[in-house]
């Protein structure tokens, strides 16, 4: 991300901000998804024992 910004100084700030927001959104979604998956797995093993 930072390397791309340095490599292309011609890129408008709007594009950089939009890309950063996209990355944050994906990271949040993945985080919630992994947390939910972990919770389900935890519940599953808890019910098994």
Number of helices: 2
Q: What distance lies between the first and last C-alpha atoms, to the nearest angstrom?
A: 45 Å
Integer average pLDDT:
83
What is the H/E string?
HH
Proportion of beta-strand residues: under 5%
- Quantity of strands, as a count: 0
Description:
The chain crosses the membrane at residues 29-47. Keywords: Membrane, Transmembrane, Transmembrane helix. There is one protein chain. Helices cover 86% and strands 0% of the residues. By secondary structure, the chain is an all-alpha fold. The chain has one domain (2-48). The termini are far apart. The mean pLDDT is 83.
Keywords:
86% helix; membrane; mainly alpha; transmembrane; single chain
